Amino acid sequence: MSFKYWKSKLGDEKGLTLLELVVVAAILAILAALAAAGVTGTATESRGTSKTNDINEVQKSVFNYIGQHPRSFAPTNDGCLPGQTTLGSGIDRTCPAGADPGAIDEDNAATFRAIIWDKAFATNDSPPVTKSFVPNFVQRAPKHAYEHDDGTPWPTVLATDPDGYVTAGYRVPDPLKKPVWALDSKGNVFVFIPDSAY
Fold first, then answer.
1. Is the per-residue pLDDT at 180 higher than 90?
2. What is the pTM of this model?
């Protein structure tokens, strides 16, 4: 075939017009936006599922801790649940009516109490065995366990807890900030962080 043949064939072909290029770009942009929305939605759902699973695990562990504790104390700073006045049967111990270092300052300061992950107690065994909330009842502290809802970490207290079992490394939330994980008056677990941030 001659050079003239190929030249005529190539000369007959037309390129894309500006309008066609704009339409193709718009279609690609729409497809990319749909794909991004799908990925974001899946990630949020995954975080929500992870949060629900952690809540369920911690909830079982809280009730297990209270049930096994010789005095029925909860894993809060002073062992009390919000609104509780006394602890355990036959125990002369009064819970504070107001806030403690683990209470959350909502409309009512005693509405929620922070879960203290370092809480421990001595069993009635002979000799007594020390059991701590993590890892004896819940295998690991969940995400954001030692954080306030604004993302700041809990301070470390280098002293004994109110029950006298934990010394070094005992962590409690700042009383002026809201912890992420807390208990209500019935021992139900609440997480003060949205699914998208979990």
1. yes
2. 0.66
Q: Tell the burial category of 101 from Cβ atoms under 10 Å away from its Cβ (0-12, 13-18, 19+).
A: middle
pLDDT digits (tens, 9 = 90+) for 67-102: 888 878 889 887 888 776 655 544 545 565 544 444
| Angle at 194 (CA atoms; ends 39, 67), nearest 5 degrees | 120
User: How much is the mean pLDDT over the chain?
Assistant: 77
Name the amino acid, one letter, at 176.
L
Ordered by start, the domain boundaries in the chain are 21-197
Whether 142 shows a pLDDT value over 70: the answer reads: yes
- Whether residue 103 contacts residue 112, with contact meaning beta carbons closer than 8 Å, is answered with yes
Report phi then psi at 100, rounded to 5: -120, 180
Query: What DSSP assignment string belongs to 66-131?
Result: HHHSTT---SSSSSPPTT--B-STT---BPPSS--TTB--SSSTTS-EE--TT-EEE-SSSS--EE
CB atoms under 10 Å from CB of 32, counted, come to 10
